[in-house]
Structure formats: structure tokens, C-alpha cells
Write a structure and sequence with these properties.
34% of the residues lie in helices and 25% in strands. It has eight helices and ten strands. The strands form two sheets. The protein has a seven-stranded mixed β-sheet, sandwiched between helices. A three-stranded antiparallel β-sheet has the order 2-3-10, with no helix packed on it. Strand 6 (178-184) and strand 7 (187-196) form a beta hairpin. Helix 1 (2-30) crosses helix 7 (155-167). The longest helix has 29 residues, at 2-30. Mean pLDDT is 85; it is low at 97-102.
Length: 241
């Protein structure tokens, strides 16, 4: 089953590789400026897709977890991972696929989507990034989070901007979105979020000490969660053998 999931995951993301390879021609013969324009037309620009021009805040958040709130969460186990979450949320374990990351009109359920990847998963899918010093899941996602449309200068920059558009789910109003880094006991990572009523959106990219990657995408319909609540939820993440 795990092999099948990885195969489907690789099939979808391999399309991104094909796009990047095609753009290599543009880089060679036209240079970075035209390449940025090409990406703007094909993926988005700073106005239409602000997240492509955002980077995490300089501050690293080190939150204190509310133990009282933790006691209100319910534990759920899935293949390869487990998490505690508020009872009003529907939990769904997902593969990375196009429908997961786009807006779904009419979907007004409070839902948490979960994704797990073992250590080195992204490097196995994209071994070419090792030549750029990307050797683990965390460095892959870090490069992705700091990717910026206006800073594209080569094929590697292009790759991570495109991947940023693929990996970032609907975070509501991107013009009000924020990107942060955090350190939480044995967990660290990045959260992209928008808290503008009527709904909140949290895109959590989390790593444990073993190098496992967890993606926790929260659609908080009704805007009942705050950032401290989200930190409490992701603090419960655990891999399951």
C-alpha cells in the first residue's frame, strides 16, 4: 500500500518536473527576466497569487502549549501517523493531489487534511536537488517556503517557486496570509495561515527529530481556532509504524 501511495504521489508531481525541464530552455536562451514573466503567466504573480512572493517572518515562534486545551482534543490514528484534534473536525488522510490544494466551492465543513512522508521522501522524488545542497525533507520544504517569484535566477529557483504553488493549499485571502517558522519541543517547521472571518485556514508543515514530514491542513470553518490552538494540535503528531 505504501509503495502504491508513493507511486501515485510521484506520478502527479512528475508533471512539475516536466514543466521545469521545459523552462530550462527559456533560462538558457532568454534569461531570468523572461523566465519570471513566463512563470507569472503560467502559475501566477505577486498580485494574483501573493503567496508566491511571501517568505516566513524572521522571528521563530516557540509557543507554550495549553495543557487544559490539550485535554479537550480527541486522538485519531491513521496509517503511518496519528494526531489529536477538536471533535468538531472531520479528519482525512490525503495524498498530494490537485483537488486537495484548490478551493472547493460549497464545502463548508470543518476539516483537517493529513499527509505523511518518511525521511528523504522528497529527495527520492527529485534527486536532482541534491546537487543544490538539498539532502533532506526539511531543507526541501525550507527552500520551498523561501522561494520568491521576483528572486528567480536559475532553474533551481524556478523549481521551488513552482513547487510552492503546488504544495500550498487554499489559505483563504492570501493578501492577509502570514508565513511563520516555529520550534516546538521535538517538532519544527512552517505554518502558512490566514485568520480573516468567517473562516480560518492553517497550512502546517511539520518535521520531527527523525526527519518525518507531516502536513496538517486545517479548514477552520467558523473561525474558532487561534494560532495557539493550532500549535497544541500539531504538538500531538506522532508517526505510527
Amino acid at each position: 500500500m505504501a509503495a502504491k501511495r508513493r507511486k501515485r504521489f510521484a506520478k502527479y508531481l512528475s508533471r512539475t518536473i516536466a514543466m521545469v525541464i521545459a523552462l530550462a530552455f527559456v533560462i538558457k536562451f532568454a534569461g531570468p527576466n523572461l523566465l519570471r514573466q513566463y512563470i507569472s503567466y503560467g502559475v501566477g504573480n505577486c498580485k494574483t497569487t501573493p503567496i508566491l512572493c511571501m517568505q516566513p517572518e524572521e522571528k521563530v515562534f516557540t509557543p507554550e502549549i495549553d495543557s487544559v486545551y490539550l485535554d479537550t482534543l480527541a486522538w485519531s490514528a491513521f496509517p503511518r501517523m496519528g494526531i489529536s484534534a477538536p471533535k468538531r473536525f472531520t479528519l482525512i488522510q490525503e495524498l498530494i493531489k490537485k483537488q486537495y490544494y484548490k478551493k472547493r466551492r460549497g464545502n463548508k465543513k470543518a476539516v483537517i487534511y493529513l499527509l505523511f512522508q518518511e525521511p528523504g521522501a522528497f529527495i527520492k522524488l527529485y534527486p536532482q536537488v541534491q546537487k543544490q545542497g538539498v539532502t533532506n525533507n526539511h531543507e526541501f520544504i525550507r527552500r520551498l517556503m523561501y522561494a520568491h517569484l521576483n528572486q528567480i535566477n536559475n532553474i533551481t529557483d524556478t523549481f521551488f517557486v513552482i513547487m510552492k504553488s503546488v504544495f500550498t493549499p487554499d489559505v483563504g485571502n492570501q493578501s492577509t496570509a502570514k508565513m511563520i517558522r516555529f520550534q516546538l519541543h521535538n517538532l519544527k517547521g512552517f505554518i502558512n495561515y490566514s485568520m480573516s472571518k468567517p473562516d480560518n485556514y492553517f497550512d502546517c508543515n511539520v518535521f520531527d527529530d527523525a526527519g518525518n514530514f507531516f502536513k496538517v491542513y486545517i479548514k477552520d470553518i467558523g473561525a474558532q481556532l487561534n494560532l495557539n490552538n493550532v500549535f497544541a494540535i500539531i504538538s500531538t503528531l506522532k508517526p505510527i509504524q
